[in-house]
Amino acid sequence: MLLATTPKKIIRQTKQNQLPVTKLGITFPFQPSMQDKRLIQSTLAYITKSVETKLKEKYNSTFQKSTLARLEKVFNRLNYNTNKKSVAIVIGPDEERITYLNFFTKPLIYLNKNISIFNLVANTNNQAEFFLLFSRGAKSTLFEYYNGKLHKEYETEESGFISNSAGEQPIIAKSNTGARDQKILNMLKLMNRKNNKPVFITGTTRDVNRLWDSAPDREIMFKKGSTFLNTPRDQLEFLASEINAEWRYWHYEFLAGKIALAKKSDHLISKIFAVSEGLKCSRDGLLLIDKYYKKQLLKSLQTNLLLKSPGIWMKHLERFLSRGNQIEIVKTGLLKDYGGIVLIESEAMDSPNRLQLNGPINLRKNNFILF
Q1: Could you name the CATH architecture of 130-260?
Q2: Mean pLDDT of each 10-residue bin along the chain, 371 residues long
Q3: Looking at the DSSP assignment, which residues form a beta bridge with residue 327?
Q4: Are 30 and 89 in contact (CB under 8 A)?
Q5: Hey, what CATH topology would domain 267-358 get?
């Protein structure tokens, strides 16, 4: 029997005329409430040029023109009224997806058939943000560090005495030390009510220890005691820059404390089955995934080895992110006692659902995500 064969030249031409089954994934900081529109337009132009360069390396002119035209349309649809911090864009054969993120991401461009929102948001760009509480004798001052600068937010009134013609008179009535400490700790709690930032306490050793003993949520607080005799701004600026330089270390120390706090308050959901159910039930908060475990999840999204329904899992994750929640990939070992993945809830859950999500889980089998 004779078999009809197709000349190799025709096969090559056919392949060249077909649009490749690939996706374009982009993420970059996008904060129109804080950035000048001209700067944003410059960033978009730079990204467009970078995408064009990448396309020329591997793809034919038809695909290049089609992708760049679609990218321009997506950029024109960006919401300049958003108060989010970054944006993730996925353009595929059958989709054009824009997801606004409530955290900073690195500027990245991917061209791959398996690109998803999970690949993009797995590259967070953690900028140093923290509180610095200074205490010396009769005065305490609260600073907040963000955008690379230290900002004074609150200060207790200083009690003491001054001399005048009538003799020494009080500046103000001398306040109780415990009451003054409680006042500034209450202000700190108000500003950091969701425990989103670590707190560093500095000042004279005695005052640091006294504040530390009075402070709640010490799991996310760190002593930076010193022998300051006054409050020179340059010394505090130097301390803040030192913390910023060591931010990677302090950030993981903070996350460990945040996990401990969530566990103590029964707001920690751990292991893949419980976390997946939490995403399905629209639980909000911070999703942490071990660096090594992330690779397993990414592989599962492509091969269905771990997740029974990866498409549905991704939809729940996209909904989670679109509600303003955050996902972060952490160093291997931080989540070793929690199955490699945890969801730190931002709000309390009702008791029946909590028992269901955090009850005993059998992890002997790989296929355990149920939807």
Answers
A1: 2-Layer Sandwich (3.30)
A2: 47 49 89 88 94 91 92 95 91 89 87 81 81 86 92 76 47 62 90 92 89 91 73 83 94 95 94 91 93 80 65 86 89 91 75 44 36 35
A3: 287
A4: no
A5: 60s Ribosomal Protein L30; Chain: A; (3.30.1330)
